[in-house]
Specification:
Layout (H helix, E strand, L loop, with lengths): L1 H14 L4 H11 L7 H14 L7 H20 L11
Helix pairs in contact: 2-3, 2-4, 3-4
């Protein structure tokens, strides 16, 4: 499956290279969602949504955008232990 994703990203880099920095920036913020604070994680989700607030030029870009937002929403609600428990807030 990762080979298929890799191929889609290569295709996206070729067809819409200006979108890649936005996806990378959003992915960097996604990696900081840690479950410590519900408010902090929601703010990070909002930041990701604001970065990805554009219409991608390709179907692969649209798919990637929607998957990234859905995963960020899910991760921001997991908490520290995956059960919705946050350390603070």
């Amino acid at each position: 499956m990762s080979i298929m994703i890799h191929e889609r990203i290569k295709k996206l880099k070729k067809e819409a290279p200006e979108e890649i920095p936005l996806f990378l920036k959003a992915a960097g913020i996604f990696n900081t969602i840690d479950g410590l604070s519900i408010i902090g994680d929601k703010q990070k989700l909002e930041k990701i949504e604001s970065i990805l607030d554009f219409t991608p030029a390709t179907k692969d870009g649209r798919d990637l955008r929607s998957v990234m937002i859905l995963r960020a929403e899910a991760k921001s609600e997991e908490g520290m232990f995956g059960n919705g428990t946050f350390l603070i807030d």
